């Protein structure tokens, strides 16, 4: 009850009147980022996603995703796939398909089981360690190959927003050595105020409006946060706080 505290007078020792003042009121903290720059965050899976435009074959794409602590994307639910399809991935002239159609490698492989009259097979998750995921439907097209027994998955989405937001897409089984854009997926992470990635258990200042917060990174979230309070700069009437450094000011006096 701030109003009651400010208006109430209590008697101290010796009959002195003491007035209580609110020195600082804690504000709710909003952390604006859970993914590094260039990645898209999806709350439903607590994951980050990024499309890489540089054309790589499937195996090189796997290694690129691993270097950023991720893997080629697989999907756990239809809502997650719809989130991916709805994003504007900024695929420009660098893409390797028509401008109105966008394809990228994802983390599935099509295992060929029969070569009778047509290629027959089934989808598998490329990495056995992946969490529970759903498998794609039968592919729209398959790259015919006499030698390879495994083809790799490409997800196609569309440039037109009306098609993307309706969830239109297609699956293709392609030669794994073709070059294509690709979609990486990684767990959400702690990102500090200077856009550095923070490892589990370390102290950091989260991205947001308060450079004087110190938090612990736990499961990609800032926890156990402590705020520092700053004294106003001495001998300065007008000043501006530095948005990135705690207790650093710029004096605006003439």
UniProtKB/TrEMBL annotation:
<dbReference type="InterPro" id="IPR001007">
    <property type="entry name" value="VWF_dom"/>
</dbReference>
<dbReference type="InterPro" id="IPR016187">
    <property type="entry name" value="CTDL_fold"/>
</dbReference>
<protein>
    <submittedName>
        <fullName>IDD protein</fullName>
    </submittedName>
</protein>
<dbReference type="GO" id="GO:0016020">
    <property type="term" value="C:membrane"/>
</dbReference>
<dbReference type="InterPro" id="IPR016186">
    <property type="entry name" value="C-type_lectin-like/link_sf"/>
</dbReference>
<dbReference type="InterPro" id="IPR042378">
    <property type="entry name" value="IDD"/>
</dbReference>
<feature type="domain" description="C-type lectin">
    <location>
        <begin position="44"/>
        <end position="185"/>
    </location>
</feature>
<dbReference type="InterPro" id="IPR001304">
    <property type="entry name" value="C-type_lectin-like"/>
</dbReference>
<dbReference type="Pfam" id="PF00059">
    <property type="entry name" value="Lectin_C"/>
</dbReference>
């Amino acid at each position: 009850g701030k109003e009651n505290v400010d208006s109430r007078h209590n008697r101290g020792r010796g009959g002195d009147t003491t007035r209580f003042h609110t020195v600082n009121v804690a504000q709710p903290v909003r952390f604006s980022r859970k993914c590094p720059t260039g990645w898209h965050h999806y709350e439903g899976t607590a994951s980050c996603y990024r499309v890489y435009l540089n054309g790589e074959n499937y195996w090189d794409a796997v290694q690129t995703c691993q270097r950023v602590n991720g893997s080629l994307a697989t999907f756990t639910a239809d809502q997650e796939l719809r989130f991916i399809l709805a994003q504007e991935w900024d695929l420009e002239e660098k893409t390797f398909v028509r401008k109105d159609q966008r394809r990228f490698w994802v983390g599935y492989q099509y295992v060929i089981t029969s070569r009778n009259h047509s290629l027959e097979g089934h989808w598998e998750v490329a990495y056995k360690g992946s969490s529970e995921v759903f498998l794609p439907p039968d592919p729209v097209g398959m790259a015919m190959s006499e030698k390879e027994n495994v083809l790799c998955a490409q997800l196609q989405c569309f440039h037109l927003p009306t098609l993307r937001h309706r969830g239109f897409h297609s699956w293709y089984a392609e030669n794994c050595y073709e070059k294509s854009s690709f979609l990486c997926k990684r767990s959400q992470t702690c990102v500090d105020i200077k856009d550095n990635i923070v490892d589990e258990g370390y102290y950091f200042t989260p991205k947001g409006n308060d450079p004087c917060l110190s938090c612990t990174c736990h499961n990609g979230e800032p926890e156990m946060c402590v705020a520092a309070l700053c004294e106003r700069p001495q001998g300065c009437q007008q000043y501006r706080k530095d948005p990135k450094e705690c207790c650093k000011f710029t004096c605006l006096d003439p």
